[in-house]
Every structure is written in structure tokens, then in C-alpha cells.
Amino acid sequence: MVAAHALNPHDRSRRRALWAVGGLALIPVAGCGFKPRGAAELPFKSLFVSVPPASQFGAELKRTIRVNGVTIVEQRDAAEARFELQAELPEREITALSTSGRPREYQLRLRLRWQVRDAKDQALIPSTEMVLRRQITVLDVQGIVNPEEEQLLYADMRSDAVRQIVRRMSAVRKPAT
């Protein structure tokens, strides 16, 4: 009976060759500079977030800010910085019609206008408008959009907007005092 760890010398050399080829394949990936995104380092420790109470965008922004180690404060004067959501507008526009004149495709848009100010009311990020777009195709002969799919696309746009805003806030340099 042969022990399980005893291999044929030919099998050992084949295994070594495979490991060498696999190792060489990893070298370009290791040197390409790819690094997964981690938590953003924000330049302030506390933030006052001014959004409507029922805003799903606001809830996701607050959650993401907390995950990044910043305290969300309820008092405007207690914060190092203030995020102000000036507008949040979901929009829908017909972009294609069927041969019978019914809508076949819509463009969904989420339009946000926001700014970030410091405790001295100086603009860290001036009023900025962001427009996110997604296409939705109508498969129904009635030309009706699937409401669940539409809500998923709006949720995706909100998540995308939150990531972009947090990245933008992480690049802020505080004004010299």
C-alpha cells in the first residue's frame, strides 16, 4: 500500500510547473495598483445632515457617513460641517415609442442639488447639481413600467449618489483658519 503523500516524481514536477505558471500570472495583477475601496477618510469628525425626514437618500447618506467614522449630530451648531440637500427630484421621460405609439423605453433620472459648509458657514463644496440616469424598457404591451423595477433603479441611483458624494467629501480640504 502506497502512502497518500508519496507522489510520482512526474506528478510532482507537473504540480511545480503549474504553481510556477500560476505565480507568474499573478505578478501583473499584484503590480497594477489595484486596491479595493475601503472606508473613506472624511476631513471632519461630526456632520449635521439637513435632509427631509422621510428621504430614503438621506437615510442612506447618514448610514454611510456613520460607517466612515463620522458622528451625525442633531444640532447644527455642534457639527464641524453641514451637508444640505437643497433638492431631490425623481424624473421619468419617454425616450422611445413602439410602432403603435406606446412608450417602449423610459429614462429615469434622479436630480440632486446639495452643498457642504463648515461651522463658519464657508462653502467646503459649493452648491452642486448631480443628475443620475438609468434606462428602463417596457415589455408590457400596455406601455406600463414595472413599479418594482423602477424602485430598484431609483434605489441604485441613490446608492450611487451617496458613494459619489462621500468620495467628494473625502477630497475636501478645510480652509485655513
The CATH homologous superfamily corresponds to Lipoprotein like domain
Q: If helices are DSSP runs of H or I spanning 4 or more residues, what is the number of helices?
A: 3
Q: Characterize the quaternary organization of these chains.
A: single chain
End-to-end separation in angstroms reads 80 Å
Large-scale geometry: elongated
**CATH fold descriptor:** Double Stranded RNA Binding Domain
CATH architecture: 2-Layer Sandwich
Radius of gyration, in Å, reads: 26 Å
The topology string of helices and strands comes to: HEHEEEEH
Total strands: 5
- Counting helices, strands and paired strands, the structural category is alpha/beta
Query: Roughly how much helix do the residues carry, as a percent range?
Result: 25-40%
The pLDDT mean sits at: 83
Q: What fraction of the residues are assigned to beta strands by DSSP?
A: 25-35%
What kind of sheet is the major sheet? 5 strands, mixed
List low-confidence stretches.
1-5
Strand order of the largest sheet: 2-1-3-4-5
| CATH class wording | Alpha Beta
Question: How many separate structural domains?
Answer: 1
